[in-house]
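Researcher: Please generate the 3D structure of the following complex. Treat every line as part of one assembly.
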Amino acid sequence: MNFTLKIWRQENAKAKGRFEIYKITDISSDCSFLEMLDILNEQLVDKIEKPICFDHDCREGICGMCSLYINGRPHGNDDDITTCQLHMRKFKDGQTITIEPWRSKAFPVIKDLVVDRSAFDKIIQAGGYISATTGGVPDGNAIPIRKTDADTAMDAAACIGCGACVASCKNASAMLFVAAKVSHLAHLPQGKIEAHERVQAMVKRMDELGFGNCTNTGACEAECPKGIKIDHIAKLNREFIAARLGAQLPKEGGSVAI
Amino acid sequence: MPKLPKFLQFASITKKITLALIGLFLMLFLLTHLGINLCLLRNDGGEWFRAAAHFMGTNYIVKVFEVVLFGAIALHILLALTIQIHNWRARPVGYASGSKSKTAFGSKLMIWSGLLVALFLCIHLVNFWFAKVGWNEGRYLIKVSAIEKAYKVKQQALSDAFIKTETDEERMQIEADFVAFQDGLEFFQTNEKLSDALHGGFDYITDLSKAEIREITAVLPVKYEPDFYVMVRDLFQNKWIVLMYLFFLTALCFHLMHAFQSAFQTLGMAHSKYTPIIKVVGVIFALGVSVGFAIIPIFFYFCK
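Model: Done. Output below.
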């Protein structure tokens, strides 16, 4: 298969980027999208040109490293997959493929197609965890959890933090990511203890980092490689309302916006 | 952008929830408005509609709600703009390829359909509300019972003053006033519209201009109201105004299509049993309200 690739090239975070056109030929239809880019990079290196930088790691759809906005869709034109699981058979022979980095104020471009997604880590640091004391390993079934709650929590916990939700959202909102983390923990007894503090702190951090607001368009759930539903955003909103209305005013150091 | 004072730094979700709550309140208002407007379709020469407009124009609770409503609309627009500007700033560099992600119908148009509805609101206020406040020439009506009441009050006042008089001069003055008052009342007999209404047993004297109102109130300090029925009838004789109303009602329909179910989602009400029902009700609501309002200009253009 032959393709024309229109790829975003940017020297560094401060440089002005531009699109470069590349022609690539004799690509197997069984080739994965990232393998196709590997082949292109080898050809560039042979020509003593700078290879294209893109994020990748496990290449089996669980690490959340690969990104790429391909022809108007994060992770390309297929549902419930990451870019590494996308194959060239999904494209037409001779097609032009536009490849862009995630676009968001909170995800600045580092180089070419690589963006800095540490904003997600900062949101997790604000409260996306449970405080646990050290000690012996507790018995697995010591705390009874309803099956539906455990399943819902597991659905939310499937989030790999790739940022496709932010990339696809017209507002570059991180609501689905935050919702997945909040909903995951809020459905479990261990997470309920700090639920009020967690949701307020994470939303506050999300706002500070410059992510947009939610318009309930549903682009995020359409593009999430793990199929996380916007029902979790409703859960986040419920948790937020409960925390704002129900939680006592925090004392020193932990003040939050109303 | 200058930093807002601390008490104005609302969390993104707080802003969205407020927007949703106000939106639901405005939907209730739309239903009320539609209910009253549909009285226009009744073939009674505007009796029901005038009665409803009279209630809405004079009831004190409604008057309080009018202020609440204007405040709510202002806050809804202000919040929506704040949120939208924040959203635009969240993606300083856009994509070269247009988004191909599946999204909810109308959701990406909210700011534009909303701005069109806001523009429509301005035009609508100029058409109707300005006439009520008196900034614009409109058509007005006077209740016949109000004239009779004002006549009795005036007569009583003159006779009370007559009893209290002590000198001949004062008495003559009152008599002169009384004659002037009687002369003034001649106007009610000579004016065709007024005499028709007074002798024809009508409840209202309708379709009065501002100048006519001025002439009447010069004789009798009688209360008057805007005659919205005549204003609607006259306005919708214009083809372009009818088309403009239909265009803006389409924008309202698009706005409501997304707004209804989105408001519930923002308020955290997502439920496997009820969300599908909410979505269907939302579509019915959006279509019902916009078609309901659209019938009126069409009806007046073709049938009146």
